[in-house]
Amino acid sequence: MLRSQLAALLRDGAQSLQQHEARNLQRSWRRFAAFAYVAEQYGYRYNGLSPLSPIGSPNPYFAFRRLPDAPERAAWSAQHYPAAPEGGPLPGMRPGGSRLRPLPEVQQEVDLLHARIVVDYSRTHRRRGLTALLVLLVAMLIPLSQTGFSAQSLLVCGAVWLFFAALWLTGLVIARRRYAKYSRVLRDSGVDWPPNPSLP
Fold first, then answer.
1. pLDDT tens digits, residue range 131-170?
2. CA 73/CA 80 separation, integer angstroms
3. What is the pLDDT of residues 168-189, one digit of tens each?
């Protein structure tokens, strides 16, 4: 999974695309933050949520903007980490075991990338939850229209919908706390995030 994701990044770099799009395929936001660090060593800096993401997607795309010195960065990484595309060590990561374990000297940078990513992902929870609740409501109405809208069936469907609504509200509270926590981490580190869209 990591190999294919890195291959896609290198392919976009070879084509000099101005933006690379990636999803979190690492099953961990911290490992995805480590991947974002690696992407920067090949010339693509994490830039927030991508407009490619469908509204309400539980696994959105994230954007990586090509840096002005991307060719130099990619050449340096290719020279010093020639086996990276085939499963070898990655820039800034510890050799052996998991390939996305940051070295101590880059851990702080990865932690700040992790905070940015969590802030961005936390902002999607409200929309994702509302979309899911709407789909669930429509899905329950379809069998009801076939079997009839009896008081008992309406009560059961209402209870199921309220249960998932309560789960969504719980998740929303957690997402807002996470957003506040990592926004504070970024603010305390002097990082203005999300970036002002009016700035280049």
1. 777 777 777 777 777 666 777 777 877 888 788 888 878 8
2. 11
3. 788 788 888 989 999 999 999 9
C-alpha–C-alpha distance, residues 176 and 119, integer Å: 9
Q: Tokens representing 30? A: 């911290």
Confidence grade of residue 100 (pLDDT, cut at 50, 70, 90): very high
What number of other Cβ atoms are within 10 A of residue 174's Cβ? 12
129 Cβ neighbours under 8 A, 6+ residues apart: 168, 171, 172
pLDDT band for 22, please (50, 70, 90 cuts): very high
